[in-house]
């Protein structure tokens, strides 16, 4: 296997660059077919909701897609499955990933009030994707869902994301996350499966006096049941303490002060 990987890299890296270029430069409506030609399979299950017409006059909120988090590419494959670009909020990605991303990405500040205001504003503009686990997980488990999203809208659609890779993992805990998309697309025939679950009924949302934690835990259980995964109470920090020996934060120096961001 080690020999095969070494022999494949001169082919796999240019192929990964070609796949990334296709996803970044082509219209989202044809990315699904471009990926298929380039050996990337996208399997879509369930019935995705139609786009919501939002405006300042009707005060209708866009749909918030609640995705399980397997790689940094989850929102991109969600958009590929829908055939339209869905903006995503991120807990922190590298500048390279933001540059090559075909969808709009907005960084969360990890300040609860600031993030809540920003997400509400984005939902007023249309649909939005979020991965409330806060970090990727390779194993068949779901990390604990942050409950903030449940307080911001009742238009919630759970999405079960799962992928299959043969040679390279598209995630890292210790390395540079900017290479994660390249490693995923370097696999000879990677697969992403996107399953759209039923929109959460009104009686199971915070609008019917459910607590945000009850809503978040329910969605976690629904996605886990779909994927045959196990729900856990482990958080992003728990993952990084176990795998990298730190709490998953990095320090970025700015001209004015040090800014701490989540990994």
UniProtKB/TrEMBL annotation:
<protein>
    <submittedName>
        <fullName>Glycerol-3-phosphate 2-O-acyltransferase 6-like</fullName>
    </submittedName>
</protein>
<feature type="domain" description="Phospholipid/glycerol acyltransferase">
    <location>
        <begin position="63"/>
        <end position="164"/>
    </location>
</feature>
<dbReference type="GO" id="GO:0010143">
    <property type="term" value="P:cutin biosynthetic process"/>
</dbReference>
<dbReference type="InterPro" id="IPR002123">
    <property type="entry name" value="Plipid/glycerol_acylTrfase"/>
</dbReference>
<keyword id="KW-0012">Acyltransferase</keyword>
<keyword id="KW-0808">Transferase</keyword>
<dbReference type="Pfam" id="PF01553">
    <property type="entry name" value="Acyltransferase"/>
</dbReference>
<dbReference type="GO" id="GO:0016791">
    <property type="term" value="F:phosphatase activity"/>
</dbReference>
<dbReference type="GO" id="GO:0016020">
    <property type="term" value="C:membrane"/>
</dbReference>
<keyword id="KW-0472">Membrane</keyword>
<dbReference type="GO" id="GO:0090447">
    <property type="term" value="F:glycerol-3-phosphate 2-O-acyltransferase activity"/>
</dbReference>
């Amino acid at each position: 296997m080690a020999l095969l990987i070494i022999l494949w890299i001169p082919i796999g890296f240019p192929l990964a660059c070609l796949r990334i270029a296709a996803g970044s430069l082509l219209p989202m409506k044809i990315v699904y077919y471009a990926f298929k030609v380039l050996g990337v399979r996208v399997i879509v299950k369930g019935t995705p909701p139609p786009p919501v017409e939002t405006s300042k006059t009707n005060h209708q909120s866009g749909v918030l897609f609640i995705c399980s988090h397997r790689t940094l590419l989850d929102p991109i494959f969600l958009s590929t499955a829908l055939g339209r670009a869905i903006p995503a909020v991120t807990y922190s990605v590298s500048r390279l990933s933001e540059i090559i991303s075909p969808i709009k990405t907005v960084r969360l500040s990890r300040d609860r009030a600031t993030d809540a205001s920003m997400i509400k504003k984005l939902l007023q503009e249309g649909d939005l994707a979020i991965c409330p686990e806060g970090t990727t997980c390779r194993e068949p488990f779901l990390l604990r869902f942050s409950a903030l999203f449940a307080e911001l809208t009742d238009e919630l659609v759970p999405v079960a994301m799962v992928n299959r890779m043969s040679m390279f993992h598209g995630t890292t805990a210790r390395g540079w996350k900017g290479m994660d998309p390249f490693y995923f697309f370097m696999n000879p025939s990677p697969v992403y499966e996107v399953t759209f679950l039923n929109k959460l009924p009104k009686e199971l949302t915070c609008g019917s006096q459910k607590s945000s934690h009850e809503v978040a835990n329910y969605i976690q259980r629904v996605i886990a049941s779909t994927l045959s995964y196990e729900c856990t109470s482990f958080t992003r920090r728990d993952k990084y303490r176990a795998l990298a020996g730190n709490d998953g934060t990095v320090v970025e120096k700015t001209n004015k002060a040090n800014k701490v961001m989540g990994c």
